[in-house]
Structures are given as structure tokens and as C-alpha cells.
UniProtKB/TrEMBL annotation:
This is Flagellar hook-associated protein 2. It is found in: Secreted; Bacterial flagellum. One of its GO terms (cellular component) is bacterial-type flagellum filament cap. One of its GO terms (biological process) is bacterial-type flagellum-dependent cell motility. Residues 29-125 form the Flagellar hook-associated protein 2 N-terminal domain. Homopentamer.
């Protein structure tokens, strides 16, 4: 259906619109008022429709610019890759026996050949394994997940040296970075009770009760009892050691959800449990709601229980604590909704380990309580900075620990020091004298006998990995490793870059040369309603065509990029100082707008002869375009055009007031709103005039009927 015909098909729609507004005309005159007013308003709406078409065109143009910026962004990102050495100077390595020696090389490694004539020893990690089974009874082995305090009798005698948090905890904090604030790691979820002493590298510090009391001229420290955070009055230097001895109390908050006589505290192996436990709860009315006082606060009730020495015959207000398991039994059911706090100390044991690593000596101490399991112990040690991996094997009933690094870092001496920790030496049957390994890889490279702590090592940018022992003196074939340029990878990268450039040229030229169909403006709402979806799609395809035709910014970018490619690199001493020298030229078809084509043989020759020169042709830095490589020039040119397009069309992060098209859209929206308001007033005026006419005609009809009735005529 032609668009011109659509303009005449509106009676039904307009009638429906006016019915929706409860406007009914023509009752007296018999005229189709809605149609008459609609026809009168149609001409009035032509300027508004033109503004809406302008708005739609601007929105399409804005989106077209933004889509072009996305394409330019992708190409600009690629120019960055073409400034990386890895895009041009990658190396390929070849081993004569990769099952014995493998190798890789970085871009700056020199080309050449290395020969390993022998590998007499592979690097190994220091390991230590239990000398005998960990369990006291092989028929009743320990459980790796059981609570250590509860299964302590399954270990060998003397496995645990239990200490008491109420007697004291010794903690060492190694200062790796200068500062004033440090944390106690052994405190866990307990609270500092008393601090017996604090010293820094042998210098005593006084503990103050309030952080505001710290005096920078004095050796003082404040300790947050709940968090264990230490704040010193002075900056503690790196490599210092903080020694602190303190006691810690644990406080369990108990909440009773339903009546019960038994609760279980969070720890086992308890000492110094509170002699009294007081439960409080909110007093309720008959409806179960909280009773409140005059200030609106809940009224509370409480009940105190006294500790008994035996679980037998408990009085109603007594409780008994099983210090081994943490189970608390009361003489009667506890009130639902009640709560209480229970304070106590508990037993713990410590482990200290020292390892010799590539980063130096690492020492750590660990605190474990009776709730912890063997799995907890191993996990905590494995995740520390010691560089140890340990696990318990249930089948052999043995513990093994090994360094995560290979090599000898202690001149043939012990790599993992146990410090006589009873849990390690008696509980896990580990002995420093049983340690094995911790050896360096030994080999002969290009006639030089040397060694490394790891089986993987780097020489002049070439990383070797020795996998097996061999000796050319005993008839084994030596292993040669050759390093050369990976020319094919560089060719592939350059080809991909040229292909993306040619695609960009196609896309830009496609938009700037696209035909403009001036007879196909954007459809009005009324026109759109009269077309099918397919007809709308075909119409808008032509309406959107040519939005960027002859765009100066994009045409300027094409010219600038051609110049970027063709300008020789003035700072290059290589014969490959311009694109044509490496086999990249423009196509013979001038209509293609400067597309590039590659002579692969010539490009390969250039990369093999002078890869550094080819790399600089693309990646060189400089103050002027002539001193800059092609990728740098292109990146600057594309970025400038993208900025110009953003100023014109914005992006998703900008509001309309921040770019040109957006400002134009705001202006058009204001003009549309103003004109719509005037049209509404005009239409209302037409309706008022027709209503007045109808009223007069109604009077005339009434007078006519009266006169007719006087002459004896009846309707």
C-alpha cells in the first residue's frame, strides 16, 4: 500500500480516540464531529511530524556513529598488540630429546644452540616421614577428623604437652613491614585477659589501658582485648620481633530456643569454668508478648545456677560441667528464650617449625586447641608461609611432610626443623635425622659443570627443564637445544593486523559512500500503523542509508591512516624502515581506498634477516609521527577520531547535554513539547466551537418543534 494512501485511513482510529476521551459530537447537527476535527488537526500536526522525523534521523545517526566507534576501539586495541615484542620476536626452541630436556625462550633470548652433556642429579624436595605408625594400637587407629583432645589416648605417650590459656600464651610476631599496628594470631575467638609482658627485639614496652593514652616519647602499647590488635606508640621497624605473653579467656554466649537441661560449650578440655551461670529472659504477658517498662524497655527476669562438683543428684539451681567434653548439665529445664554468658579457660598445645627456602629462613609457631583435628593441623601448616605439604596416610598410619620447593637451601643440613615439638616428634613420630632429599639438580651445560635448586632454570632468557639423568661420558647421547626466531607467528600476527585494517577500510568506506534516499524519511506514527512489519523494515533500511555519507571525520581518518602506513620511520637504521620494504603495499585498485596486500616471501625474508628492525617499524616510540612506529601512529590517529565522534555522538556514559547530537535532540524534544501543548489547545478550541454550534442547533430544533406543534403537526 502506498504511503500517500495511508493518510486517508484514519476515521475509525480517531473516532476510537475521541470515544476514549468521552467526546461525542453531532447529536443535534448529525455531523461527524470527530472526523471533521481530525481532518482539521491533521494539517496542524505536519510541523510536529517533521520534528519527530528529524529526531528519529538524529537518533539513527547517533547510533551509527557509536557503532563506528566500537569498530575503531577494536582496531585500536589491536594496534597495542602490534607494539608488543611477543607479536614479532617470539622464539621457537627445539630439543633433540624432549623426554630428557625441554626448553622455552623469551623474545629477547639470543638465537643459538645449547648442549647438555650430562645430568647427574635431579633436584628433589626435602621430605620426612613417620619412623613408625602414629597410632598406639594399630587395631584402633586415630581418626584424622576426630577432636584431638578426645582421641589423645590413641596417640603414643607424650604426644601432647597441654597448656592452659589461663596460665599464659607466648606469641612471637615477626615484623616484615614497619608499622604501628599488628595482630595476635594465637588469640583466635578468645579475649585477652591479662598481658604479662610485651617486648620488641628485647626492649620492654608498657601496656596502657586506653589508646588515647599512648605517648610517642615512651615505649608503650595498647592492646584491644577483643580483637587482639596491638597499637604501639612508635613505629616498629621491619625485621623486628615482638614477644608477648598473655592470658586469654573464652566467653560463650548461650541462647536457649526450647526448654532443655543440657548445653554444650564451644571448647573441650576446659579449666576455670565460671562457678555461677545467670540466665536472663524477657518477661511475657498472657499473650506471649514482651512486657515493657515506662521507658518502653523489655522487663527481664533472671535465674542463677551454681556449679556442682558432681552430676549426681543435681539441685534445681545447680549445674555440672564435664570439662573433658564441654557438656553442661542443669538441675532443671532452662527457660526458652533465655540467654547467658559462660567464661572459662581451655587447654591447647603448640607446634613450632622452621624451613629453609629460596626466600630465606621461615619460622612459624601454631596454637591448636582440643577441638582441632589432625586434618585441621595439616591444613593450617600447609597454608602457612613455611612452604610445606603434609598429609596423614591412614593405610600406613604415617605422616609425611615435604617441602614444596626442590633444592638444597641449608648446605646439606636439615631443611625442616621440628624444634622438639612433642606432637611432631612423639605424636607423629617425625625425626629430623630421617629427612631425605633437599638436593640440587646437577648438570653440565656447554661444558660448564653447575647446579640449580630447581629442575627448571633459566639461562640467557632460555628456560630449561631437566626431566631425567644421562651422561654422554657413559655412552648416552647429549641433548642439544636450538633457539631460533618464530617467523611464522610474526607473519600470522601481521597478516591478521592487515586483515583487520582492510575490514575497517571496507566498513568506513561502506558508510561514507552509502547512498542517501531523500524520498524515504522516517515514518510517522500514523504511517507506521498502516504498514506491515516487513514493509516497515524495508522502508527504514532505506531511511537509515547514507547517515554518515561523506562524513569528514571518517574520510579524514582514512587519509590519516594511509599516511601513517606510508611514512618512513626516520629513526630506524634498518633497511626495513617503511612498509613496502617488508612486502606490504596498497592494492592496485584505487577504488578500494588504500587496502593493503602482503608479499609473504618478502615479509618472511625481512623477519628472518632483521626481526628487530621490523618490530621497530611497527612499535617504535618517538615525539613526532616520523619517529613513531606504524602502530603508535595509527593508535593516535584512531584515538583522535574516536574523541571527535564522542564529542558529536556521545557514548553510553554521557548525557545528552554533553555531546552535539544530544543537545540537538534535547532542543527538538522541547520544541515538540511546546507544539504539542499548542495543538492540544487548538483541538480543545475546535471542540468548544462545535459544542457551541450543537447547543444553538439544539435550541433551533426545539423552537421548530414548538412551532410545528402549534400548527398541529406532530413528530
Amino acid at each position: 500500500m502506498a504511503v500517500a494512501d495511508i493518510m486517508n485511513r484514519n476515521e475509525m482510529e480517531e473516532g476510537a480516540d475521541y470515544m476514549a476521551n468521552l467526546r461525542i459530537g453531532g447529536l443535534a447537527s448529525g455531523l461527524d464531529t470527530a472526523t471533521l476535527i481530525g481532518d482539521m488537526m491533521r494539517a496542524q500536526r505536519i510541523p510536529v511530524d517533521k520534528l519527530k522525523q528529524q529526531k528519529q534521523t538524529l537518533e539513527w545517526q547517533r547510533d551509527a556513529y557509536r557503532d563506528m566507534n566500537l569498530q575503531l576501539t577494536a582496531f585500536r586495541d589491536m594496534t597495542l598488540n602490534m607494539r608488543l615484542q611477543s607479536s614479532f620476536l617470539t622464539k621457537v626452541t627445539t630439543s633433540s630429546n624432549s623426554s630428557k630436556v625441554a626448553a622455552t625462550a623469551i623474545a629477547t633470548a639470543g638465537n643459538g644452540t645449547y648442549t647438555l652433556s650430562k645430568v647427574t642429579q635431579l633436584a628433589t624436595s626435602a621430605t620426612n616421614t613417620s619412623s613408625s605408625g602414629v597410632s598406639k594400637d594399630s587395631n584402633n587407629k586415630i581418626s584424622s577428623t576426630g577432636k584431638l583432645y578426645e582421641i589423645s589416648d590413641r596417640f603414643q605417650e607424650g604426644a601432647f604437652e597441654w597448656k592452659d590459656t589461663g596460665t599464659g600464651i607466648n606469641e612471637k610476631v615477626s615484623v616484615t613491614r614497619a608499622g604501628k599496628e599488628f595482630n595476635l594470631k594465637k588469640l583466635g575467638t578468645s579475649t585477652v585477659e591479662n598481658v604479662n609482658s610485651v617486648s620488641v627485639s628485647g626492649q620492654a614496652y608498657t601496656v596502657v589501658d586506653n589508646i588515647d593514652d599512648l605517648d610517642s616519647s615512651q615505649n608503650q602499647v595498647f592492646i584491644d582485648q577483643k580483637t587482639g590488635k596491638m597499637t604501639f606508640s612508635q613505629t616498629i621497624a621491619a625485621d623486628s620481633t615482638i614477644d608477648i605473653n598473655y592470658t586469654a579467656v573464652h566467653k560463650d554466649n548461650i541462647s536457649i530456643s526450647s526448654p532443655t537441661k543440657e548445653v554444650r560449650l564451644s571448647h573441650v578440655g576446659l579449666t576455670d569454668v565460671s562457678n555461677e551461670i545467670t540466665f536472663t529472659w524477657n518477661k511475657k504477658d498472657e499473650d506471649g508478648k514482651d512486657i515493657k517498662d515506662d521507658e518502653g524497655k523489655p522487663v527481664t527476669e533472671s535465674e542463677t545456677f551454681t556449679r556442682a562438683s558432681s552430676p549426681d543428684n543435681l539441685g534445681e539451681n545447680e549445674f555440672y560441667v564435664d570439662t573433658e567434653t564441654g557438656k553442661v548439665t542443669f538441675g532443671k529445664d532452662l527457660q526458652a528464650g533465655s540467654r547467658a554468658e559462660v567464661s572459662y579457660h581451655h587447654k591447647y598445645f603448640e607446634i613450632e617449625l622452621t624451613t629453609h627456602t629460596s626466600k630465606g629462613i621461615v619460622n612459624e609457631s601454631f596454637k591448636f586447641d582440643g577441638r582441632d583435628s589432625l586434618t585441621t593441623v595439616t591444613n593450617k601448616i600447609n597454608s602457612s608461609n613455611l612452604g610445606i605439604n603434609m598429609f596423614y596416610d591412614e593405610h600406613s598410619d604415617k605422616m609425611t611432610m615435604s617441602r614444596t620447593e626442590t633444592g638444597d637451601f641449608n648446605s646439606g643440613k636439615t631443611e625442616i626443623e621440628l624444634h622438639g615439638s612433642s606432637f611432631l616428634t612423639k605424636g607423629l613420630n617425625l625425626d629430623e635425622n630421617n629427612e631425605k632429599g633437599g638436593e640440587n639438580a646437577k648438570f653440565v651445560l656447554n661444558g660448564l659443570e653447575t647446579e640449580r635448586t630447581s629442575n627448571t632454570f633459566t639461562v640467557n632468557g632460555v628456560t630449561f627443564t631437566v626431566k631425567d639423568k644421562f651422561d654422554a661420558d657413559n655412552g648416552d647421547a647429549p641433548v642439544t637445544v636450538s633457539i631460533g626466531n618464530d617467523t611464522q607467528k610474526a607473519i600470522d600476527n601481521i597478516k591478521e593486523f592487515v586483515e583487520k585494517y582492510n575490514e575497517l577500510i571496507d566498513n568506513i568506506q561502506g558508510k561514507t559512500r552509502e547512498e542517501k534516499y531523500r524520498d524515504f524519511p522516517p515514518l510517522t506514527d500514523e504511517q507506521r500503523e498502516g504498514l506491515s512489519d516487513k514493509e516497515v523494515e524495508r522502508w527504514e533500511e532505506k531511511a537509515k542509508s547514507g547517515l554518515l555519507r561523506s562524513d569528514q571525520q571518517l574520510n579524514g581518518l582514512l587519509s590519516k591512516m594511509r599516511m601513517d602506513f606510508y611514512t618512513p620511520l626516520s629513526t630506524s637504521s634498518s633497511e626495513y624502515n617503511q612498509l613496502a620494504a617488508i612486502g606490504i603495499t596498497t592494492t592496485k585498485n584505487y577504488l578500494e581506498g588504500g587496502k593493503l596486500e602482503i608479499n609473504e616471501d618478502k615479509l618472511k625474508e625481512a623477519l628472518e634477516k632483521d626481526p628487530e628492525g621490523v618490530f621497530n617499524l611497527f612499535a617504535a616510540d618517538g615525539d613526532t609521527p616520523a619517529e613513531q612506529g606504524i602502530s603508535r601512529r595509527l593508535r593516535d590517529s584512531v584515538s583522535q577520531t574516536m574523541d571527535s565522534i564522542t564529542q558529536r555522538a556521545g557514548n553510553g556514559a554521557k548525557t545528552n547535554s554533553q555531546f552535539t547530537i544530544g543537545k540537538n535532540l534535547d532542543d527538538i524534544n522541547k520544541r515538540i513539547a511546546t507544539m504539542e501543548a499548542r495543538l492540544n489547545q487548538k483541538e480543545q478550541g475546535y471542540w468548544s466551537q462545535f459544542a457551541a454550534m450543537e447547543k444553538q442547533m439544539q435550541k433551533m430544533n426545539e423552537q421548530m418543534n414548538y412551532m410545528m406543534s402549534q400548527f398541529g403537526y406532530t413528530s
